[in-house]
Amino acid sequence: MDEAAVKKLATQIMDVIMQYGLDLLGAVILLIVGWLFAGWAGRAVRRALDRTPRMDETLKPFLSTLVRYVVLTLVLVAVLAQFGVQTTSIIAVVGAAGLAVGLALQGTLANIASGVMLLVLRPFGAGDYIDADGISGTVKEIGLFLTYLQTPDGLYRTVPNSQIANRTITNYSRLPDRRIDLAVGIGYGDDIDAAQSALLSLMRADGRIKPDPEPQVMVMALADSSVNLNLRCWVDRNRSE
Q: To 5 degrees, how large is the angle CA 56–CA 62–CA 63?
């Protein structure tokens, strides 16, 4: 190969490196800046929501995470455009990839859809104590994929959103009033009417018990060694004294 041919080949290689190397460098810089900006945008949205007095605590982490992923998606589109990929091609590729990913990640997408439904229907919120057919605890956060709970014994539990959304949910914190049923046993030789009257007087004298509905005492069972009475009354869940 003569010297002229070598110089021509070297020039062509340098042109390719200059053309695509700059594009690659620009894409890397754009990706890094976009990643940092997405994190900053998510934190900025969270701070703004924290300053909003009527914003529900449950929505704050969800919205901030959603903003972060939207920014990352736009950054990815911009990176592809850096290499000359047309918008229509991007949409077609994203659509095809979305279909493939959707089929492969049905469980993950189900968790996202369930998280959205939990936020829209609001069967519970942050701070509520719930039981979803054995999944129980105080709700700390409803995320994009997981719901975070704290159990009564101090454990931190993460549960996929779909596992909670598809179960019967009992919310112990939603309503202000709570009914209490307490079993008391008396002997067969004791006066049932006197016992009922004494227990009713005791409940009516307790300021924590609501007068309406009226407290009740009823015979529930004739056990082997006792007559079991049931005390039934209503209290304010939020009252500590």
A: 85
